[in-house]
Design a protein that fits this description.
Elements (H helix, E strand, L loop, with lengths): L3 E9 L9 E6 L2 H11 L5 E6 L15 E13 L2 E20 L2 E8 L11 H20 L4 H9 L4 H9 L6 H9 L3 H53 L3 H15 L4 H17 L5 H14 L12 H11 L4 H19 L35 E4 L5 E4 L3 E4 L6 H12 L3 E5 L7 H4 L12 H9 L5 E5 L12 H8 L8 E2 L6 E2 L5 E6 L7 H4 L3 E4 L5 H19 L7 E3 L1 H11 L6 H21 L4 E3 L1 H8 L14 E2 L1 E8 L2 E12 L5 E4 L4 H16 L14 E5 L13 H13 L2 E2 L3 E3 L2 E2 L5 E2 L4 H10 L4 E5 L11 H6 L1 E5 L2 H8 L3 E4 L2 E4 L17
Parallel strand pairs: 1-3, 9-14, 9-15, 10-11, 11-14, 16-17, 19-24, 21-22, 24-27, 27-28
Antiparallel strand pairs: 1-6, 2-5, 3-4, 4-5, 5-6, 7-8, 12-13, 18-23, 19-20, 20-22, 25-26, 29-30
Helix pairs in contact: 2-3, 2-4, 2-6, 4-6, 8-9, 10-11, 10-12, 17-18, 17-19, 18-19, 18-20, 21-22
């Protein structure tokens, strides 16, 4: 045998041929066929079989591994698609140089010398060799080969290196690992690697057998369970105890008497037929039964009988809640319309004539006089069969927390004699929360709307959608978009829940939604609802609510009902002003409960007989006041103006401070102001510079820096309504004239000095009144909103509507007046003063 020889190259794809192993391969590529034919022309019929690095059609010398197997071409069969031949591995070879000749690859090959163990009789090597033989025999048996065949194959090889190659040729590993074994020239190292791979394959086979055994055991248990159930069925049948049959028949009877729409009846009949067809042993049985039971429990035709007694309804609303006149009026108007229709001889659900709404006599809710309502009117339609299709209004209660939105909805249901259902939408991020899951999912269930109807048991409940502004959006869908169909009277009579798969009529439901912030509700959803605003309670209203509702409830909860415990008006007012800062009454009830607990401890421990909670005792029991609201300033100051602002917990006043200093005429703004407030300050600065003559501001003042600051710098502030306050403080500082401390103002300004309307007027004026302000300046366009103020506040607070900034300055700056478009100071004559409107420069 020569050390080097020139052999044709047989490139293999994902196949590794080991020495001592015979394998069958197919050859179809032209270069491969020519290489085999070249090998056949030699007496030895030798060829160099080497694996490709990548499984590609085109082969080059760079795409082949260096170490391969010198093989002998055995039996050969030719066909139309190429050749089929047997290759017998002879020994390892190393390709020294690969070239292309006569259309095939040819290589100069040198035998690869294997590294034999230093001492074949070493106990460690002998033990390793024996372990490989035993594990290889075990792998053959676990692979399903007869034991005799395995022993015959293994006993034919006694050389350790050849044995390692033989086992490596039959274990199930990837081409890279096979090539690594082929390139391992150390016999001992090759035995170790083969042992690891054999043991790993044995573990895989054992795991597969264990899984197969478990599956067969589980299937056997199910078959046994089915067999036993069938036996139990026959035994019960013989004994006349067909419980399952009775349950199914009872369900059939429930479904048969339901007044279902045609599509629902068709679906129910189809599911009943499936239930009979698949039998009780199928896994689908329970899914179908659950669906049919859900359908049977829904109120397809059940209705609550309405109470249309206006006096009784008014008494109920007045009994449950104090104040909230707008909401009570809205409910009573709705009941009045239905009552008038019944007295006229027409059913309350008769459709309106073309061009009319069925509730045309109904006035708009308070706060929207003179404006057409964008919400759908209350109306009902009758189909040709005479079935009712009542379409109720969809109300949206908007207001800060704790003002009674949820409890009002419950009182509405009690006043109307309808069932009450509440679902909380806060944090709902999945469309399936509204529409349900399709029955193809494991654990599918109806959405919250259908579950609420099932809970109500009637077709016309009062349905409260609580916290509709807290809906979230996720990759699972937008629940707010799913609510569009629910809250649209033109569509909700055919609402389709994904679980039901059939339409369900929601048109007779009185939907009421609650929210804290309107801006968080998508506009298409907001457009479907009629908004009723809850603007919070005044101190006097909170006092009355505490006396009527909160104190009796807390006395009962703390075991003081019937005890000689009384609260004076001064004590309640002290709790309201010193320990709460809210529009609602939740915190007030908590503080009253705290007082009640402390009083209960005194009565139980000290045996007090008569307890009267006045302002002093309330302060002793609750400790130092927790709330420090702003109060009106003690006196006039230059550069300090009093503004009004709105928060979700109510209105309050704020002070805007302006001060000048030496500088370059720059404007500095602090107090964590938002962009809108910064723009208002710049507009006021521009107005002052362009009207300096009319405002009596010396020109050299604009060469100084001016600093505008709004206290409470840790709280972000934004909004346009502080424009007039900033302008007043700025002009006061520049002109050196003090601003009045007893006047609060609000309004947006323009560069020309016009005063634009703002929102939240009621809360702002109430906050100013709480702070001790008796005169307020408001935009003239907000004058209609004054009607929302309580009468006692209207009588106590002097309101000045304005259109121009000059009117504001005349009211807020000491010694100023406004006549004929001119701002006057002292005894000035209008003819001697430049008008504000004329001094504006482009």
């Amino acid at each position: 045998m020569n050390d080097r020889m020139i052999l044709p190259v047989l490139p293999l794809r994902d196949v590794i041929l080991f020495p001592g192993v015979t394998t069958s391969i197919g050859a179809g590529r032209p270069g491969t066929v020519r290489a085999i034919e070249a090998a056949l022309t030699t007496p030895e019929r030798l060829i160099f079989a080497v694996c490709q690095r990548e499984n590609t059609e085109q082969v080059s010398s760079d795409g082949l591994y260096t170490i391969g197997t010198i093989a002998k071409v055995g039996q050969l069969q030719r066909g139309l698609a190429g050749m089929q031949l047997l290759l017998q591995g002879e020994r390892r070879g190393i390709a020294m140089h690969v070239t292309e000749k006569n259309g095939h690859l040819e290589a100069i090959v040198r035998d690869a010398e294997e590294m034999q163990p230093l001492n074949p009789e070493d106990p460690a090597f002998v033990g390793l060799y024996r372990e490989v033989r035993e594990r290889a025999a075990e792998l053959g048996q676990k692979s399903g080969l007869p034991e005799e065949v395995v022993q015959q194959v293994l006993s034919g090889v006694n050389d350790a290196g050849r044995f390692a190659d033989l086992v490596a040729g039959y274990i199930d590993v990837g081409p890279q690992q096979r090539q690594a074994l082929l390139e391992t020239l150390s016999v001992e190292e090759r035995l170790r690697r083969v042992l690891v791979l054999v043991q790993r394959q044995i573990s895989v086979i054992e795991a597969q057998e264990q899984i197969k055994s478990q599956v067969q055991e589980e299937l056997g248990e199910r078959q046994r369970e089915m067999f036993l159930r069938e036996q139990l069925k026959q035994i019960r049948k013989e004994l006349g105890e067909g419980e399952d049959g009775d349950d199914l028949e009872e369900l059939r009877e429930k479904l048969a008497v339901l007044d279902l729409p045609d599509d629902a009846r068709k679906e129910v009949d189809r599911e009943l037929a499936r239930l009979d067809r698949i039998g009780r042993e199928s896994m689908e049985t329970q899914v179908i039964r659950t669906y049919l039971e859900t359908v049977a429990e829904l109120p397809w035709s059940e209705r609550s009988e309405e109470h249309l007694d206006l006096k009784a309804a008014a008494d109920i609303l007045e009994e449950d809640h104090y104040a909230l006149g707008d909401v009570k009026d809205r409910v009573l108007e709705f009941l009045a319309v239905r009552q008038l229709k019944q007295k006229a001889g027409a059913p309350a659900d008769q459709p309106a004539k073309a061009g009319e709404t069925s509730e045309s006599p109904e006035p708009a809710p308070a706060g929207t006089e003179g404006e057409p309502s964008s919400s759908p009117p209350d109306h009902a339609a009758a189909d040709p069969d005479g079935k009712r299709e009542a379409r109720g209004p969809i109300l949206l209660f908007v207001g800060p927390p704790g003002v009674g939105k949820t409890s009002v909805a419950k009182s509405i249901a009690r006043a109307m004699g309808r069932k009450y259902v509440r679902i909380s939408l806060g944090g709902a991020r999945d469309e399936a929360d509204i529409r349900g899951h399709r029955r193809t999912y494991v654990g599918a269930m109806p959405g919250r709307i259908i579950q609420g109807m099932k809970q109500a048991g009637t077709k016309n409940p009062v349905f409260l959608l609580d916290e509709v502004d807290k809906l979230g959006v996720s990759f699972q869908g937008d629940p707010a978009a799913a609510l569009l169909e629910v809250l649209d009277p033109a569509q909700n009579d055919t609402f389709v829940d994904h679980y039901l798969g059939v339409s369900f009529d929601l048109s007779e439901v009185l939907f009421i939604a609650t929210a804290n912030f309107v801006q968080n509700i998508p506009s298409p959803l907001l457009d479907r609802m009629e908004m009723v605003e809850f603007s919070g309670y005044t101190e006097r209203e909170k006092l009355e609510i505490a006396r009527r509702f909160l104190i009796p409830r807390q006395l009962e909860e703390n075991g003081l009902l019937g005890s000689p415990v009384t609260f004076t008006d001064g004590g309640i007012e002290h709790i309201i002003t010193g320990y709460t800062r809210e529009s609602g009454v939740r915190q007030l009830e908590r503080e009253i409960g705290k007082v009640a607990r402390k009083v209960a401890r005194r009565i139980a421990g000290e045996g007090a007989e008569q307890v009267e909670v006045d302002a002093t005792m309330a302060g002793d029991l609750l400790g130092r006041p927790k709330v420090h609201p702003e109060k009106a300033a003690a006196g006039d100051e230059i550069g300090v103006a009093t503004g009004m602002f709105y928060t979700p917990v109510g209105g309050d006043i704020m002070f805007v401070e302006a001060s000048t200093m030496r500088g370059k005429g720059e404007l500095v703004l602090t107090g964590q102001l938002g962009e809108v407030m910064r723009e208002s300050a710049r507009a006021a600065w521009t107005y002052a510079r362009s009207h300096s003559a009319a405002l009596r501001i010396p020109e050299d003042m604009f060469d100084r820096d001016i600093h505008i600051h709004v206290p409470a710098g840790a709280i972000p502030k934004d909004g346009p309504s502080a424009g007039v306050t900033m302008a007043t403080a700025l002009i006061s500082a520049l002109s050196g004239r003090p601003a009045r401390h007893d006047i609060a103002m609000t309004g947006e300004i323009t560069l020309r000095g016009r005063i634009l309307p703002i929102g939240g007027l009621k809360e702002k004026v109430l906050g100013a009144e709480r702070a001790g302000i008796t005169r307020v300046v408001i935009p003239k366009e907000n004058l209609p909103d004054v009607a929302d103020l309580p009468k006692e506040v209207q009588e106590k607070v002097e309101i000045h509507p304005v259109e121009e900034l000059g009117e504001v300055l005349a009211l807020t700056l000491r010694g100023a007046s406004y006549r004929e478009g001119r701002l006057l100071f002292g005894e000035e004559n209008p003819r001697d003063v430049q008008p504000l409107t004329a001094s504006y420069q482009h």
